[in-house]
Specification:
elongated, 4 helices, mainly alpha, Arc Repressor Mutant, subunit A
Length: 72
């Protein structure tokens, strides 16, 4: 069982979490950069978006869902 302050201590050493706005901007830029228009190109967009979010903590599932939604 974790002590109450243990999570805060661990998080203090982790990179800051990316905001929804930062993730949206990275996805939009990745789409523009790659020219992707279909779900078949999702991996390409994911890689480009992750590169733009380097140094930030990003939930991969949330990023994936956002890319999938944009690609339709």
């Amino acid at each position: 069982m974790n002590a109450p302050g243990e999570l805060a201590l661990i998080e203090s050493y982790m990179p800051a979490a990316a905001t929804v706005e930062e993730i949206e901007a990275a996805v939009a830029a990745a789409l523009a950069e790659t020219g992707a228009t279909s779900g078949k190109q999702m991996g390409l967009v994911m890689k480009a978006a992750q590169a733009r979010l380097t140094g930030k903590r990003v939930d991969g599932k949330a990023l994936s869902e956002m890319v999938r939604a944009k690609l339709g």
